[in-house]
Amino acid sequence: MTVFLNPYLGFRDQAREALDFYHGVLGGELKTMTFAEGGMAQDPSDADKIMHGQVQTAAGLLLMASDAPASMPTPTESSISVSLSGDDEDVLTGYWNGLAEGATVIEPLTKAPWGDTFGMLTDRFGVTWLVNISGSAA
Questions:
Q1: CA neighbor of 9 nearest in space, from 127, 130, 104
Q2: Multiple choice CATH, 8-67, 3.30.565.10, 3.10.180.10, 3.40.30.10, 1.10.357.10
């Protein structure tokens, strides 16, 4: 038996653009379904919006996103952040560099007091990301 916990990001009209961006950063496979394709376009303005989309990588990362239909309130900020961590410095630094494009850097990706390399940013879609690269304490 397997259980997964996956971030699911909510947007009003930017899910396709965000998923394309995350796919460019993370790689892997991008899948999307519009409200029209899912038979759920109750409002004609929702037809081309993303009902469900996901980026899944060979390394096991899974990031999901959707647009809110016109009948639902616009998603607002939450206290959730997305964290990428591990010991593959090249891969995680590449993710950081990609996510940093157009982002607001909160903490630069630098050596942290606990011995890891850590950085935090809010990407151009308003999503906060934490990147922690495991390392030994100095």
A1: 127
A2: 3.10.180.10
Domain at 82-133: CATH code: 3.30.720.110
pTM: 0.84
Q: What string of H, E and C letters represents the secondary structure of 14-83?
A: CHHHHHHHHHHHHCCEEEEEECCCCCCCCCHHHCCCEEEEEEECCCCCEEEEEECCCCCCCCCCCCCCEE
Strand order of the sheet with strand 29-34? 8-11, 62-67, 50-56, 29-34
pLDDT tens-place string over residues 64-99: 999 999 888 876 766 688 999 999 999 999 999 999
**One-letter identity of residue 11:** F
Q: How far apart are CA 93 and CA 44, in angstroms?
A: 41
User: What three-state secondary structure class fits 128?
Assistant: strand
**By the 8 A CB rule, do 38 and 11 touch?**
no
